[in-house]
Task: structure prediction
Amino acid sequence: MGILGGNLRFVETNNNEIAARVPLQYPPQPPPELLFSDPTDGVYLGVTEFLNTPVYWNPKYLTNPHIVIVGISGSGKSYTIKTFLLRASYVWKANAVIIDWTGEYMDWVTQTNGKVISLGQGNYLNIMDLGGMKPYARIQQIVNTLDLLIDISRNEEQKRLLEWALETAYLNAGFRLDSNEQYDPLGRPLEPPTLKDVVKLLEEKLELEANPYIKRELQALIYKLKQFTRPGEDFFANKSTLSLDELINSGLVDINLAGLPSEPMRALGALTILQFIKEKMRTEDFRKIKGIRLFVVIDEAWKISGEENSDVVMIVREGRKYGFSMIIASQNPTDIAQSIFSNAGTVLILKVKFENFLNYLQGSLRFSDFVREKIQGFGVGQAAMYLSYYVSGNFSNTVIISKIEGETIVKDYFIMLNVIEGDTMGSVSITREEFRSKLRAKGIDIKSVENISSSFEKNNNRLDVIEFTKIMLLEGIERKIIVEFLKELGVEDQTIAKAIQRAQMKIRGGDKIVEVKI
Ligand SMILES: Nc1ncnc2c1ncn2[C@@H]1O[C@H](COP(=O)(O)OP(=O)(O)O)[C@@H](O)[C@H]1O
Ligand SMILES: [Mg+2]
Result:
């Protein structure tokens, strides 16, 4: 500060702060530095209405990574989520778990090569799984969750009986209630009990019970629990068929709840998955990860996002430090718990008509009447985006996006060449559509084209050139056509020759080497 003396002094400051201090240049939107910091580290959404500034979503600058999306039915909420997840998976390889109430994401997830898990259709989820928790802690969660669905805690006796039966079931299965390391004497992991064991314990108790009051409560409790254990409806009372680790590490994962027979069942499925995700989140260290590790999507599921004490709220409170982001979409902003709303670093408002909802949104996000009017007049895909930045400044926190620009699923098939020594290209790619029409043009029948296509898709759209050649040969495709096809993709002659030779070796069990000339 020396030479200036007086009250003036130099301070080091960063660009964002400077940007925030010159608000008048960009009155209707946050400064461009914040909207498009680094395209390789953000999710593109569209351009702003006033200055055509591209908008990239980057949680680095936001107070937290959670996103609330509101808008009337048909305004573009689900479309926005799909576009967003696809780009996030390209930019950060982000994973996502979508809690899909009605099965509307199923086809799309399948097209992205993601994983669809349909509960109630061959997949079970044992709600007594511990997911790394101590039985004591898990018992409290189970009691709270069941209470939301079948009303237990209003009756102290039933609650006490349920807790007793859950504890006894874990103890009978060899678990210690206060430990999260659970092995049998031979060091093998213990098998958790199921709700069926719990019901059985309660029935045994009922047989022996003399007190008429307790007898009645036991009967009532058994009756309530049995809706989850009846054959054919025991989706949550059998050994789990899905692995949690896979769930949060498999790209886009759709938890399809539509096949479950009732709303309480769907809520139970959703809440149980969220509880496991929450525990998993707490045990893993993702802090060094760029961008977002996992998006958890809840679309139109007001039943599980309205409760102040829910697991959704817990994920929202703690998610930031673990790289977990929650995306919650709803037609009705007042159905979303207050603490979710106040913890959302991003609120995306599509068309909203009801004055009540607009009052609520404007009251909490403080946008101008001008923006309010715009929101009422929005067409499909138009959005006002509220962003809660770390830096504060004299700029508007709300920006209007002309249209959320959709992302289409690119389906490239890759043929990996790096299995052949001396190859200089590494891999070649072709879009799925091109691949299919090329093969068809060479006279290959549709059935073979389907088979080869599905081999790619089963392998994450990648096949090594030897395997690819082998599959082609096994489909009865002539060598000449295979050579031609690979040449057209730009594969080097030497690589093709070696690939064919090795594919033939594989087919014949490696007993004969055939020289191939091109
Ligand atoms: N940004 C957009 N660009 C193009 N089409 C869109 C856009 N947003 C939504 N749509 C289309 O509008 C329809 C309704 O969108 P959807 O996302 O299902 O609405 P919501 O989930 O809000 O009910 C769909 O057919 C969707 O493809
Ligand atoms: Mg929708």
